[in-house]
Amino acid sequence: MDFKFTAEDETFRQEVRAFIDKELPPDWTGSPWVGEPEKETEESWQFAREFTHKMQAEKGWLTMHWPKEYGGHGASAVKQCILYEEIGFSRAPLVDIYGPNMVGPTLIYFGTEEQKKEHLPRIKGGQVIWTQGFSEPDAGSDLVSLKTSATEEADHFVINGQKTWSSIAHYADWMFILVRTDPHAAKKHEGLSLLYLDMKTQGITYTPLINIARGHTFNEVFFENVRVPKNNLIGEKNKGWLLAMATLNFERAFGIGRVGQINRWIKELVGYVNEKKQRGELIPAEALVREHLVQLSIDSEVLRLLAYRVIYEQSKGRIPSYEASIQFAFGAELMKRLFKTGMQILGPYSQLGMESKWAKLKGLMQRDYLYTPALTLAGGTTEIHKNIIASRGLGLPRSH
Question: pLDDT for 38-50, tens place per residue?
Fold first, then answer.
């Protein structure tokens, strides 16, 4: 099997790199909304929006994998893979991954023609930001236990309840949301429906969830008698569970970006160790450091191949299932090991944040390490992914 990219693909990779080098400031350290709230400025957010808009509205890259009839380029899944690998490596900001990679494909597969005409051009034009409304305080891994209700009233659904961990909801224009439309269904997953709603609708409020790194990415979102037109129902009523699972698989397939992030960190850690060696400084447990960095490098290549397998499934027009869970779970665990190793290599300097003049590697290691507990939770816990791999991949019976 030949894993080489074509000349056309390599040309595209160089085009992406040139664009990022031109548009990103040399001191860019990552997305503006994962840093400390008091340092988050309107300017940094506007820069991220402008960068995303240029990449999408001017280049059309974020939706290039869409079919041409829906405004995409009909580009190969391989080109999409190259794009997100380079984005991950550069830590480039994207303010909306949900629209191009989850909402768009879901509407293309399951939406009505009216829904496609209304929303796909806006997503393609980089005009809107989407957020997700799935998890609830008592329904995370056990998502079928969600309680947010949508009752029918004339030509509307009326939503009441609460969602949590909704990323970038404080900036979002629209939300796609999983709700309970039949509280009396024999099986809990049979009474769920997938809707989308305007975040400016009356009755919607949110509360910031500040993470351990003092960043404002997540939110709790509350719904009190929120009226949503019935035309905003995606697919059939009470059949939303299958659509939600397909949507999550679109998200979990978005794992190639982690390969880029991991390889960037490995490169920086190797560079840091080599600089210390050249200055004649002592490297504690040097043999162990070498072993860890080599193993991380090997594992990053394993992750790359797992991600390519997902891309292959997409290239054949199939929705990745357990293949996406394999690369998602492996990538999350690998990133946790990466940051643990990085903290050990930096030693006491690892405790210094971005504001310290003594911080090494711009203080990013501390910030990203503090975020690691979320890596094996967001997008589905590792345990859930292992269950998917066991049942759908290996055909094992469900445990009781």
Answer: 455 567 778 888 8
Evaluate whether residue 70 is within a structural domain. yes
Give, as one character, the DSSP assignment of residue 206: E
Whether residue 317 lies inside any domain: the answer is yes
Q: In terms of residue numbers, what domain contains 283?
A: 253-393
State which amino acid sits at residue 73: H
User: Is residue 106, in this structure, part of any structural domain at all?
Assistant: no
The rounded Cα 281 to chain-centroid distance in angstroms is 39
**Confidence category of residue 252, pLDDT binned at 50, 70, 90:** low
Q: Under DSSP, is residue 219 helix (H, G, I), strand (E, B) or coil?
A: strand
CB 136 within 8 A of CB 146: yes
CA nearest 298: which of 253, 262, 332, 349?
262
What's the whole-number mean pLDDT along residues 112-123? 95
Mean pLDDT of 347-353: 91
Tokens 């991380």 sit on residue = 296
Q: Residue written as tokens 């450091």?
A: 289
Residue whose tokens read 């997100």 = 84
Average pLDDT over residues 178-183: 96
Q: What are phi and psi of 174, to 5 degrees?
A: -135, 155
Q: What share of residues in the chain are helix, strand, coil (percent, to 5)?
A: 55, 15, 30
CA distances from 296 to 36, 292, 302, 317, 333 (A): 29, 6, 10, 32, 11
> What is the structure's pLDDT at 31?
62
Q: What is the pLDDT of residue 32?
A: 53
Contact at 8 Å (CB) between 307 and 255? yes
